[in-house]
Amino acid sequence: MHEIQLHNTLSGKTEPFVPQKPAEVRMYTCGPTVYDYAHIGNYRTFIFQDILRRFLKLRGFRLNHVMNLTDVDDRIIANSAAKGLSIRDYTEKYVQAFFDDCKTLNIEAPECWIRATDHIGDMVALIERLREKTFTYDSEGSIYYRIAKFPNYGKLSKIDLSGIQAGARVDVDRYEKESARDFALWKSPKPGEHFWETPIGKGRPGWHIECSAMAMKYLGETLDIHTGGIDLAFPHHENEIAQSEAATGKPFVRYWLHAEHLLVEGEKMSKSLGNFYTLRNLFAKGHKPSTLRFLLASVPYRKQLNFTFDGLQQAASSVERLRNFTARLQQGKFSAGKQKGMAARIDQAADEFDAGLSDDLNTARALAAVFDLVRDANIAMDKGEFRQGDVAAVQSLLATFDRVFAVLEDTDAERLRVLGYGAKEAGPGDAEIERLIAEREAARKRRDFAAADRIRKELADRGILIEDTRDGSVRWKRK
Ligand SMILES: [Zn+2]
Fold first, then answer.
1. For residue 30, how far is its CA from the centre of ligand 1 (angstroms)?
2. What is the pTM of this model?
3. What average pLDDT does the chain have?
4. DSSP characters for 200-246?
């Protein structure tokens, strides 16, 4: 196995990954702000952190991974007030949709899912701690963080702080680098807005304090890994560092990992350009969850991902190629023994797969290792050289691959049906398919070709394609 290397935004370097406690990883991911359906750019980041956690688990680490739901921020406060709903009632639909989408994309649930609104007391306690250390000041019922008091401010995003006026403030949760200012930890309520009654007054937390308070509560004062989209590095993560390190005097996070942006057909995704997609928009167009997962995972996370419909098509055929190969391995008839050189070829592919993922999660390199082997094995099968004795080793490599990429199992139709897309009826299960294929074989043996054709047609009508191969075996797959 290769040494795991990860690119740390804080140092600007790719470093060997060594957690604080051997075999345990304490990781935090900024979850979605549940004011709307998450879009494919968001899912690019969530797929990245899923690949990361699955790879770390594959390599034997025990994960303690916390992900939050930001269910209070400027937009949620404004939208819920406008609709006359409580925060819980307003966000519930989007929380549920997010959980459903993650399941559909095979994104593993983290060890701990938490909501900001369940942790207001922890946020208040952290603000009080900062106040005691004089990192805060009050103004008009709100409480601000004094960035001039934290000399390391800007170390993550490498922001230039010259020319920033002491005491200038910013109230909104999201802002550009140019407006780096003292930011709100606690905001006094405007008329009609939801607020909490707390020892530091009426109001609600700023977005940044939420993650500092929750991450440290569940993972301790120093985390191993913190992930998020690159757009969160400033101001959100910079402010998390300022809050946490001012309070504890300890490093907050050892490895900061950020996923790059996603473009759509070469352009920034935006509602006004008409190129804005949620997962559900794409499912409604007939695209499969496995296709989306594969596409979003296939580009290494630190590269911009250009999402195109051609790319989706290619991703669909890549998944198809892998599934066909898996079926061929399982259902094909090969002569006994081992093919000369094949065992070494499989070992080399497994080593290169691990090398790729160890190389700062270079998913493109890891995928190439698997696809190269699939190509070589398919050629060997076509020539009749592939042997039964090599089947198990190839299957084991595919199983390892799928513990990280999670696209081999053909459950797309079922997943879509749960969300209300695709066919209403469930197709036949594997056992039923195998039974019908056996019946068809029997019919052919007794030269009842009309019965054999009838069974083939029945299967086709129910979405199952069968193929008679040269070696005399029968392969099948779902359409
Ligand atoms: Zn966060």
1. 4
2. 0.90
3. 94
4. TEEEEE-HHHHHHHHHHHHH-SSEEEEEEEGGGIIIIIHHHHHHHHH
